[in-house]
Amino acid sequence: MRITNPQITALMSNSMSASSAQIGKLMQQMATGQRMMLPSDDPIASVRVMRVQREEASLEQYRKNIANLSSSLSTQEANLTATSDAMLSARDLLLWAANVGANAEEDVAAMASELEVIESTILSFANVRDEEGRYLFSGTLSDRPAVTFDAVTGTYGLTGNDKHRQAAVANGVLVDENVTAATVYGPGVDALNGLHEIVQMLKDPALDITDPTVKARIDDALGKLDAGHGNVLGAITDLGGRQNSLSLLNGSNEEVSLVNQKTEGELARLDYAGAAIDLNNYQLSLQATQKTYLKINQLSLFGLL
Length: 305
Known about the structure:
Helix content: 55-70%
Shape: rod-shaped
CATH class of the domain at 52-263: Mainly Alpha
Largest sheet: 2 strands, antiparallel
Mean pLDDT: 84
Oligomer: single chain
Strand order of the largest sheet: 1-2
CATH architecture of the domain at 52-263: Up-down Bundle
Radius of gyration: 39 Å
Structural class: mainly alpha
Number of strands: 4
Distance between the termini: 25 Å
């Protein structure tokens, strides 16, 4: 079989082009550190890398959700702790007021004034908002206050609901974002209503502090306040438990993320040592082909005459 000069030229040219293309690809891989420049370079590995990247994107969202949720739970816990402190202060004042035989009129007036401030303080804690303006204790009705005062009936009532907002913090794991005023203060907001009733009673100029019914009403308010305080402490414990769960879930997510990063590295990152050897081999091949091409081009029958 006779091979013509044009065929030889084409073969040499194709060989040099192929070596040059491989050298260019290797140099690009070494510049980026990536083994796969196109999915076609390794289809199976490319699919696995895309799966890992999708999972990593989900983990990143979980990390953001956990950070936001942890901040919200901390805010709620701080407000409930302050509510607990306010209730304990109110309790001390109610115990003082219950000692009806030892209180002068000015003492009663001072107690009424201080209890009224505590009442307003507890209400403000119940209606705390987050940085986005959402009421934290209003359940899913976060655009309205959790507790409001009805001037007609002279009582406090719930204006939120008892439902929980939830956030995804891991694959298939949802955690409640909030506690509700219904849980903390009860459906009838008894602790706050009991406190309000006593404040109004003690502010009455016609009040007979020695009347036996006064102590009975104060004792009733104390019972409601103690029950409400127990609910507050229970909610604080619940929030603390959720924070612990978030810490564990965040640690688990981080471990999964490390495994994903390792897997992606093994699949997609370039082996520089191997790439350097391949680059050297292709350069030698290209040089050999170029030298062979030059020698063949110099051959001529006239040189043999």
